[in-house]
Amino acid sequence: MHRHNYGRLFALFMIVALTVAASVGAGGQEKKYRLREIAAVGDISDVDDSMNLRVDLRGSAGGPELPPIEYFRRGRRKYRTTVLPVDKDQRPTAIRRTYSIAREIEAEIGGVATPTVSLLQGKTVTLRRDASGKTLVSVAKGRIGENERKEVSNDLSSTQDDFFPDRDLAIGEEWTLDANRMFESLEGLEKATLRAKFAEVVTYRGHPCARIEMSYTVSGRVPSRSMNIQFTQSGDLYHAIDLQRTLAASVDGPVTLTGQELIDGRTVFFAGDGTMEQEYSERWSKIAGKTTVRKKSK
């Protein structure tokens, strides 16, 4: 007859019970977190933001289908941000940003890859939000174009930090938000809805972080090109609960391009499928002017 090890079973039961208890608060209520993205005067962070798009295109100029064409576009922005004044809701009303890298490379359809260095590279710009909510952009030295001004001015909008609901969240809760502002550079942008879920609390770069699962679908026209684009992306965002600041985000997913280009005097109609990846990392060296404790990277 088999003898049960009741001591071991009891120990296992206690481990499970303690695990469950750790996930609930006083009174048996599930533990909730107030997730906010805040700022303070003197915050300094270093951002590395990159995008990689690759599509295999099939084209036709009214006759037989042309040989497949690879289209790709890669971009990277690396900069340091210093927070200047903040408002009563702890949102920045002015920031100073110094770009060390601002470039991209794009493969011309039917041509060669063209690298482009943005006028932002090597520049220090200051963004200030006035009482009407408009962002004013100034450059410490040199000049930038209208495209660069539009790119940076979206980063200081009065609603940019409304990613998290204004309430306490429990692990497993989901919410949706209007993501149109995230993709304002796309012409003819259709409504973009982002879905998010508070998946779990994990340790990331030495901080207790809320891991947020994200997904969204966007469609519109690529600026300055006769291209329609649609992409669906999903991935994770890591928000430091102790710092109340985001540390990283990573998304990827399928993309579809359709459009037309004039190649060698012929109008070529094309369509293709591929993938797009985006990576965002923000490392905080100072919070409210005080140096942060260095954490091991993940």
How is this structure best described in words?
The radius of gyration is 24 Å and the shape is globular. The strands form two sheets. Strands 2, 3, 4, 5, 6, 7, 9, 10, 11, 12, 13, 14 and 15 form a 13-stranded antiparallel beta sheet that branches. Strands 1-8 form a two-stranded antiparallel sheet. The model is unreliable at about 1-25 (pLDDT under 50). The protein is built from two helices and 15 strands. A hairpin with a 5-residue loop joins strand 4 and strand 5 (about 115). The termini are far apart. Helix content is about 10%, strand content about 50%. By secondary structure, the chain is mostly beta strands. The chain has a single domain (about 5-290), classed as Roll (Lipovitellin-phosvitin complex, beta-sheet shell regions), CATH 2.30.230. It has helices at about 5-20, 145-155; strands spanning about 30-35, 45-60, 70-85, 95-105, 115, 125-130, 135-140, 170, 175-180, 195-205, 205-220, 225-240, 245-265, 265-285, 290.
Structure, briefly:
This protein is mostly beta strands and 298 residues long. It has 2 helices and 15 strands. The chain has helices at residues 6-22, 146-153, and strands at residues 32-33, 44-60, 69-83, 94-107, 113-117, 124-129, 135-139, 169-170, 174-178, 193-204, 207-221, 227-240, 245-263, 266-287, 290-291.
Query: Any idea of the CATH class?
Result: Mainly Beta
Our estimate of the beta-strand percent is over 45%
The total count of strands amounts to 15
Q: How would you sum up the major sheet?
A: 13 strands, antiparallel
The string of secondary-structure elements, in order, is HEEEEEEEHEEEEEEEE
Number of domains: 1
Gap between N and C termini: 51 Å
Instruction: Supply the CATH architecture.
Output: Roll
Which term fits the overall shape? globular
The level of helicity is under 10%
User: Unreliable segments (pLDDT under 50, ≥5 consecutive)?
Assistant: 1-26
